[in-house]
Amino acid sequence: MPARSLVSAAVAGSALAVLAWSALAPVSSASRDQIFEIPNGTWARRMSGDKVEILPDHIRLTLGVRDTLVLLNHDAVPQIFGPTLMMPGQSFRLPFEQAAVYTFTCSAHASGQMIISVFPFPATPWAKLAWRAHELYWRVRLQAVHIWYRYRL
Amino acid sequence: MNDAWPTSGSIARRGLAPALLSLLLLEASAAAPPAAFKAGTFDPPRPAPDFSLQGSDGQELRIGRFRGKVVLLAFGYSSCTAVCPVTLATFAAARRKLGATAADIQVIYVTVDPQRDVPERLKRFLGTFDHTFIGGTGSEAQLAAVREAYGVTAKKIPYENSYTYAHSSFTYLIDRRGRIRALMPYGHSPDDYANDLTILLQE
Question: Which of A144, B174, B189, B198 has a 20 to 30 Å separation from A19 between CA atoms?
């Protein structure tokens, strides 16, 4: 068998193994918290005209895995953060127990609202696969945002 | 029979059985996980901003008036046909579930519509749910200041020949010490309210 075919077979086998693991391995999480933080200096940046959006206007949570929204205000001033007003140094922890779409009025967003979609626990192979794909996407996106903040601040 | 070991009869005689049972019950209650809030919780809790409004009970309405009670604070308006009636009916159901302890709960409902919600109208409206509920109204500026202090939004929306409001639909849970402890989003059941109120009442 030519070397190229061997490499292709190895790559395909690895991909299949990853897919199989993603679809079959039990879903778990070290923490059920989905954390969003307002960094110190956010208000000052907003005042200087910088359009800072910390909290996405659409958040996705999953029951039994990541079903608790945690908001942290590290800024020096009170902030409207999602559904509530938060004092400096204050945290807000909101658990969800039912899969549904929740809409909150949120003046911090241009749309005037924040949507939280809470999905059922991923029990089927397809649901596990979809959940893991979204987790991967979400982690990459968060890292990109952190890198962007470091670069801007 | 080995007399070194007491028989069950002798234990009962000495009153050890009730003592053991009490110990077991104590152990079980200590091992039980602490009750968790269904609402979103604040850490650290901040003092609930006080205000002075016209109460539907004919008195000045201030949060400080209810120190020592657990307060449910919500914002809305009596012409609301969707959110407010559901929220108020939920409060009433939760109070009924709590029985006699509900005497230590005060529902305060601050209007976002001072043009229509005069104290008499608020009293009639709230009385259809529970006669202990107290409404608050005031000038546009007073109410806007209260909303700002609590991070509540309300937007007047023209509708045919009248108007309606889009407003925050959550409820603040304020403890006996006058601190904002939790925020319950719209849509939670009377059981969820009863759960969280019980936690606050037992503190």
Answer: A144
